[in-house]
């Protein structure tokens, strides 16, 4: 039930700019559960991915390091459900939204070190994040070129809403890091 309540909280915050008082409690309960489980399965990974916004950047990076240490990108659960690559993608979007610049490089490194050739969407997002990383480091022309290629592919695949979201995010990042 905490997952549904957390998702409801996210929708309220996004659509009506309302923050619920129970978010800290939701985070504490879910984190307590996740920290008790030695080996995460599909349920724990899905729970973590779906409630990512409740956790601090430090906790997210800590869990990514634990999953990396266990070589989770090659785990059968990721091969079947692409959970790890979704986690990386969602975490990057979250960190960019939060504008937590000090953690973006660490997360970008996790993404760059992950190969998931069975997940073409992740490979596209990996290229997109390379473009974002270039923008963040002042390589505007190179970053824009790479981002435009990814957006063109998304449009070709008829993912127009995603392409628009990616374009808008890139514009916000470029403004934030413009020197």
What are the key terms here?
single chain, 179 residues, mainly alpha, 10 helices, 77% helix, 0% strand
What can you see in these coordinates?
The relative contact order is 0.08. With 179 residues, the chain is an all-alpha fold. It has helices at residues 2-16, 23-36, 42-50, 57-69, 76-81, 83-98, 101-112, 120-136, 140-156, 160-177.
| Gyration radius, rounded | 17 Å
Low-confidence stretches: none
In total, the number of strands is 0
> Would you tell me the overall average pLDDT?
83
**SSE class:** mainly alpha
Strand content: under 5%
Q: Tell me, what's the shape? A: globular
What kind of sheet is the major sheet?
Answer: none
Helical content band:
over 70%
Q: In terms of quaternary structure, what is this?
A: single chain
Write the element-wise H/E pattern from the N-terminal end onward. Answer: HHHHHHHHHH
- Terminal Cα separation, in Å? 45 Å
Count of alpha/pi helices = 10
Short characterization:
This protein has 179 residues and is mainly α. It is built from 10 helices and no strands. The chain has helices spanning 2-16, 23-36, 42-50, 57-69, 76-81, 83-98, 101-112, 120-136, 140-156, 160-177.
In terms of topology, how is this protein built?
Layout: H1 2-16, H2 23-36, H3 42-50, H4 57-69, H5 76-81, H6 83-98, H7 101-112, H8 120-136, H9 140-156, H10 160-177
Helix pairs in contact: 1-2, 3-6, 4-6, 4-7, 6-7, 6-8, 7-8, 8-9, 8-10, 9-10
